[in-house]
Every structure is written in C-alpha cells, then in structure tokens.
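User: Second chain of the day. Same drill as before.
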Amino acid sequence: MEILKLFFSFSGRINRGRFWAVIAFWMVVRIGVPYLLYSFAMLPGQSLDIQDADASPEIFEAGKVYAVLSVVSLFSTVSAAVRRLHDFDASGLWAILLFIPGVEFIAYLVIGLIGSQRGTNRYGVNPLGENNVYYPGNDEMRVKELKDLATLFEKGLLSEAEYEKAKQSILK
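Assistant: Same format as last time:
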C-alpha cells in the first residue's frame, strides 16, 4: 500500500529523495521497456517502419504496452510533483508547468531541488519525521538547535546579545 501511495497519491508531502526515486524509476521503465520489447518481441532484422508490409503484430502490441506505460508514468510523476510542491507549501496547481514544452525540464529541477518546509504545513507533517520539527516538548530538536547555536557563537558568528536572544527563543 505504501508503494501505491508513493507513486499514485496526490495528497500529503514527499521529500526530495523520494521524488527523485519516482522520477528515476519511470525513466528506467520508459527506456528499458522499449528496449526489452524490441529485443524479445521482434525477430532480428525486422523493420520498424509502419509502412512496411512485413511488420509483425508484435510491434503494434509493443506500442500499445508502451502507450499504457507512458500514461501511467505521466500520472505518477505529476502526482509526485504535486506532493513535492506541497512539501514546500506551494499549490499543486504549479504542476501545470510540467505540461509546457521547454519549461518542464526547469520545472522538474526546481520542484526537485527546493528544500522541505520545516514542521507541519497545510498539507501535512514533514516527511522527514517528527525529529525535523520543533514543537513544544520535542527535546531532541531543542538540544540540536542549542548545540548549533553554541557552535555559531563559539566561531564568533554571533554576538553575545544575538546568542542570548536566540537561546531564549529556543528555550521558551
């Protein structure tokens, strides 16, 4: 069930790693399947020309399989993009950019490279888990933030006043 949600759900959020895993999976499938169909379904030396009278029915069946895979992969990659947009609190409607020729490559890169919004947003909990979120009572995150703050202070990147102010806001 988790796999179906990863590939075909439009609700919730996914992180960058899972987004790129979905994209990579469909790239491998869309490149590998035609190669396998051509290698195993057709006899060596057979023509791919649609006008060729010798073209076998296997070629047309392979085309149908590839067309179905193309539609499924399109649906899946758009659903992953929508959830990725949700992860940084953007509307899923921005996925429309994936259908504009010349813009889709840049859109995939932007969607896949922007970091997750920390904490919970209107689309759900951060997919990286509770430990990536500060909420009252999350002592692990509070300790991590205090250690990071102390490191910045020790390196001289924060003044004492900035350090004390940031420390007090974490300890509230």
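The chain has a mean pLDDT of 82.

User: Great, on to the next one.
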